[in-house]
Structures are given as structure tokens and as C-alpha cells.
Amino acid sequence: MSDDTTPPRRSRSTALTWLALGCALVVLVVAVAQRRDRPVGDRTVGEVTRVGVAGGASVPAYLRAAGDELARLDAPDGYALVSFAAYLTPARVAETLAGTPVSAVLARVPLPGRQTEIVRLAVLRLPDDAVTAMAEVAARKDREAAEYRARAAAPSATADPGRRREYDTGAAVAAGEAAGYRAGCACLYAAVVRGVPAALRALAERPGVRVVDPAPEVTRLDRTVFTPPLPEQRDVARPPADAGPAPADAGPAPVGGMGDSSEAAPTVSAPSPAGRPPASGSGPPNPAPTS
């Protein structure tokens, strides 16, 4: 019988277990601390908000829905898409929206029977910012017209009359757009504004305003696609159409008067004219907008 009274020692495996758990706890605490120090990523990346009428949708139904939403609106302050009953000059837009904070206007040159580019122009002061932005678009259109002419003169085009007519038409359309914007044409047909519900409802009653579509869900304009109906769209927001290449003996597309076009236009920031080779420097078209 042993008379050893030394207390039993803690097993080696138990000590190692507690040591491992302690190390794991330290690692976890450090990882959490580092996670808190990292900047939080933008969870809205890739998300696009769409405001307006969808392609192929009923325009009267859209107008009614926007009006109903405006009547029920109770948000403290927010963006809204204002559609005009006609194409307006920058000065007329300034009169129509007087006293309303504006963030952008949408424009297109309504060349009869031609599909022209829709552009979104950032503005804060009307009419000055719109005039300046339109002059910049005119300069870009001049470059597009020059490139079309250069392509029309290339040997590959001179040997193909169909391609030559296509390039000549592209040059004529771009030149018509440039002339219109440079002259400060009646080309603006919608605006993005901001206001409280009472101010937006009062704006909807002003002459020349077709509808005010409230968009309280919009938080970032750079991730929002606006698709207001064109003034000439009365029944359905039809897909774009175009008269096609001009005959070989046709002159430039008409500019004076800026007659109404019966067709819609390409999506915001798409190269113009759609369906024809884009000029250098033109970016790819945005996804087709929907409401």
C-alpha cells in the first residue's frame, strides 16, 4: 500500500485543450477588431433604380399612376421626374420650373423621322447650365459627324453604295443634332427635381407640365435611369424606329423648326444614331430603361 500523499497533477491533455481555446479566443477578438476598422462596402453597387414609363407600356396608364402616387405622397422630401407636354428651350424650362431645385434635364433633338440620342444633362442653374451643357453636346456631335464623313470617304465605303449612304445619313443626323444644340433648340422634354410633396403637387399644376412622377426611393442619381415619355408619345411607349438611310441624292436632315418626331429615341447616354456605327469616344449603351 502506497503512502505517497502528493496530490494528483492535472492531465497534460486538459492543459493543452485550455491553451488552444485561449489562443482561438485571442484570434477571434483580433479578427473582430480588425473587421470594425475596415470601411463598410457600398451595398448598393450594381443596383439601378428606374423611374418612368417602360418600353411598350401604356403612356396614359403611366400618367394616371404617377398622378395617383403624387396625390398620396407623404415623404418629407425627395426626387421627382417632371415630364413636359412639349419640347422646351432652356429659357422656357427655367420659367416652368422657377423656384424648384433642379438636378438634371433630359433632351433630344426631334429631327423629323430620325432617331436621335437622348442625353441627360446635369444642371443646377437654369437656363445657364443647360445652355453650357448643350454646347458641349454640340461639339461632340460635330466630332461624330466628322467621323461619319471620314468613314464615308474610305475605300471600303465608296465601293459599297449602301454603306456609303448609311454613313452619309449618320453624318447628316449628327450634324442636325449639333446645329440644334448649338442654337439652344427646343429640345428639353423632362427634368429631375427635388421637393416636398406640397411643392411637387403645385408644380404638377403649372402650364406646360405633363406629369410629376415622385421617386422617393431614389437616393443616388448616378444609379438611377429616368425614362419619361416623349411629348409625342400619347398611347404606347414604342421601341425606337428610324426612317433608315437617306437616299443617295438626299441632302442633310432638316434642322430648322425642329419638327416633332413620331418615334422614340435611344436610351440615355447611348451612342447616336442607334443602329449605325458609333463614333469614336462614344460609350456602350446603358441597359434598356424600364420604369
| Strand residues, percent | 15-25%
Structural class by secondary-structure content = alpha+beta
Note the total helix count: 7
User: Which spans have pLDDT < 50 for at least 5 consecutive residues?
Assistant: 32-42, 247-291
Distance between the termini: 92 Å
- Topology pattern, helix = H, strand = E: HEHEHEEHHHEHEE
Which strand order does the major sheet show? Answer: 4-3-5-2-6
Q: Give the C-alpha Rg.
A: 30 Å
Instruction: Choose one word for the global shape.
Output: globular
Sheet bearing the most strands, described?
A: 5 strands, antiparallel
Number of beta-strand segments:
7
The residue fraction in helices comes out at 25-40%
How much is the average pLDDT? 79
How would you characterize the overall build of this protein?
The protein has 291 residues and is an alpha+beta fold. Helix content is 37%, strand content 15%. It has seven helices and seven strands. The strands form two sheets. A five-stranded antiparallel sheet has the order 4-3-5-2-6. It is globular, with a radius of gyration of 30 Å. The N and C termini lie far apart (92 Å). The C terminus is likely disordered.
